[in-house]
Design goal:
- The protein is an alpha/beta fold.
- It has one domain: Glycerol-3-phosphate (1)-acyltransferase.
- The protein contains 13 helices and 7 strands.
- Strand 3, helix 6 (about 135-140) and strand 4 form a beta-alpha-beta unit.
Length: about 280
């Protein structure tokens, strides 16, 4: 009982401090979400329209505009919350001609990846393709719907059949194979979806495993407001590379999934992101 009461005392914040903290979270959150609306309309929409009426350059131009738009978002994040640092592994910055699989802990993760890579594609939940304006941007950028339903089935086929040549021209495909944000602290990665690993075999592409840290500290799953009192470093690091010899080896989808899961679950990445998943087993 004493332990419970002491924890309650330490977790309780003074009412005045809690109100100020909430107010700051609300104001900064509204400013950041406002960027998505007013920043797009005032600064970016004319360039998106120009790209749309120029089919030969449409896809790379939209990808580049997305890249600039989300870079602007993270610049604003750092301006409003100077206590937040960012570290990007130089090896990650140099990635091209490959598929990237990442852990997924926050809605900010895909925005971070787009902000890092000028030439990029990704797999997006099919429902987002039905959203006005946003769905058009997804299609124009060459992003791939996650589920081949109705009209989206043709779009998925078109995008996947041209993906190998896209990767050969310095493009990257980044995917979060867990399929959703991981809230299982201390339990390691969620079960992978197989789609991206099938694509890797189809395109005969290397797979780079990337770890994103601390985006969930800034924007926690299930919470509308940003944690503006967070002070730390958001990092993107290369955890490992899977480069099968597709000519000599019998490469299976299950084997690629296992290798990627092993990389993400091994130390130090599991400790840094999730808490080491084997620690409970080792103690027993």
């Amino acid at each position: 009982m004493e332990a419970e009461s002491s924890n309650a005392v330490t977790e309780t914040k003074p009412k005045g401090f809690a109100f100020l903290s909430f107010t700051r979270d609300l104001v900064i959150t509204l400013l950041l979400w406002g960027y998505f609306i007013f920043g797009f309309i005032l600064f970016f929409s004319p360039f998106y329209l120009i790209a749309f009426v120029c089919p030969p350059i449409r896809e790379p131009a939209i990808q580049y505009l997305n890249h600039l738009f989300y870079r602007g978002f993270f610049i604003l994040v750092h301006m409003l919350m100077p206590g937040i640092g960012r570290h990007v592994d130089p090896k990650v910055k140099g990635l091209e001609n490959c598929i990237i699989v990442c852990n997924h802990v926050s809605y900010l993760d895909p925005l971070m990846m787009i902000a890092l890579f000028r030439r990029h594609k990704t797999i997006v939940k099919s429902t987002f393709f039905k959203v006005p304006v946003f769905g058009w941007v997804l299609r124009a950028a060459g992003y791939i719907p996650s589920m081949p339903k109705g009209r989206l089935s043709g779009l998925m086929v078109r995008q996947t059949t041209t993906l190998a040549s896209y990767l050969e021209k310095d493009g990257i495909l980044f995917v979060f194979p867990e399929g959703t944000r991981n809230r299982n602290a201390g339990k390691g990665v969620l079960e992978f979806h197989s789609g991206v690993f099938k694509i890797a075999r189809l395109c005969r592409a290397p797979i780079n495993v990337v770890v994103i840290r601390n985006t969930d500290k800034l924007f926690t799953p299930g919470r509308f407001l940003f944690h503006t009192d967070f002070s730390g470093t958001i990092s993107v690091e290369l955890a490992g590379t899977i480069q099968p010899d597709y000519d000599k080896e019998k490469v299976s989808t299950a084997g690629l999934m296992e290798q990627a899961g092993t990389i993400l679950n091994k130390q130090p990445w599991a400790d840094l992101v999730y808490g080491h998943p084997d620690s409970a087993h080792n103690e027993s």
